[in-house]
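Entry, Tuesday afternoon. Goal for today is a structural model of the target with S-adenosylmethionine bound, before we commit to ordering more compound. Inputs were pasted exactly as handed over by J.K., no edits. I checked the ligand SMILES twice against the vendor sheet because last time a stereocentre got dropped in transcription.
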Amino acid sequence: MRRKETKKVIFENIKVLDAGAKGVSVAKAPEGQVIFIPNVVPGDVVDVQTFKKRKAYYEGKAIKFHELSEHRVEPVCQHFGVCGGCKWQNMNYSQQLFYKNQEVYNNLKRIGKIPLPDFEPILGSEKQFFYRNKMEFGFSDSRWLTNEEIASGESFQKNALGFHIPKMWDKILDIEKCHLQEDPSNEIRNAIRDFATEKGMTFFNARNHAGLLRTLMMRTASTGEIMVLIQFFEDDKANRELLLDFVYEKFPQITSLQYVINSKANDTLYDQNIILYKGRDYILEEMEGLHFSINAKSFYQTNSDQAYELYKISREFAGLTGNELVYDLYTGTGTIAQFVSKQAKKVIGVEAVPEAIADAKENAKRNNITNCEFYVGDMKNVFNEEFIKTHGHPDVIITDPPRDGMHKDVVEQIMKIAPEKVVYVSCNSATQARDLALMDEKYSVTRVRPVDMFPQTHHVENVVLLEKRIAN
Ligand SMILES: C[S@@+](CC[C@H](N)C(=O)[O-])C[C@H]1O[C@@H](n2cnc3c(N)ncnc32)[C@H](O)[C@@H]1O
């Protein structure tokens, strides 16, 4: 170990041991402290320079590679390592799946502390790139320059349309090609950036809160339909129409062209009035003959192909025969509810966002589904004795909560009404494990199958089947 004047520590010849949380790998210092290191792969042997020390761990970066892991692959993306996304692009896909599976297993074991069956094999995504149906990019007049660009001595233009640099709220990395959303996503983004720059339109400055152009959101669907939404900070009709007309003429395949004028401090779209410029205000997604309309604010699983696989697994776990009353908690736009409806007597969906429930009802009508009902409300308030009395005692509950998991009152209510089966779909196996532990008194976990919806990232979805224990 050498010490530098800066008091930063360099550890030499450190073997990277594990792929840890948030896509950052884990190693151990000679005295046993954990070191978190980004952009390395388990199996690499590196010299690490630390830049942060906490009581229990260091954060550091690899400054020299002695050995490269056999699990390394060449990242396909030119922005890898600078852009905050796709942190696992340097690790082969089977190894990514191995670590995702391990994360779910460790969470269920260590947090859940419950008996577990053998896991069914994690389901990988056939598409490992270009799998996302929704992307959001930020405009900035403070483009992030990479070390190579600075070293080149060339001058670069300042406008950027791309992603925030991690932990840099005011800097945006200009993206030339992103491997997450299929074309024409890259073409549309680059054309907008170039046209706007050529016409002298101003890009947002996050420090001064100024500039015409703020964000760009694009949605694509397996039906080929495309939604483009541009968020403007300033209300400049002439430039707005110049840009929107350009986009529509250049990309006539766009199904829905919309915009927002948002001069608030934050750029979230959810409380904004979205204005339709051309086409219709939604796009259609298709799954097993069902059509789902998706508007600018709708939640829809971001990997459509894997959402289909996830739903098939959930439906299989539910083991429906056609006679069951099913509750679909956290139903979003009612996709799971409608997906299982043919195999159930009736499905009741509950969701907090009124627009999502309006979509769910509209979609059910579009799909000629008559045995699904949808209700709005916060689950912890709506899902009570009265609700069960009115809508009936469920035989099966499918629950797909947000990352925080289920509110404890919701878990309690499930325990009280104790349906035969609960299918628990989760994007965060740590909170899922906590909830499973709360249900352990009455339920056995009988099936577990992780599903990868997000290749090149550490995120993983998990489906669990809970079956009621037979009372002695
Ligand atoms: C992971 S999404 C699942 C959506 C849906 N099952 C699907 O596959 O598209 C979680 C959903 O829970 C909703 N939600 C979040 N908190 C909620 C709450 N407290 N009560 C009811 N719904 C909530 C969100 O709006 C979101 O639609």
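Residues 299, 301, 330-332, 335-336, 351-353, 356, 378-379, 400-402, 427 surround S-adenosylmethionine (CB under 6 Å).
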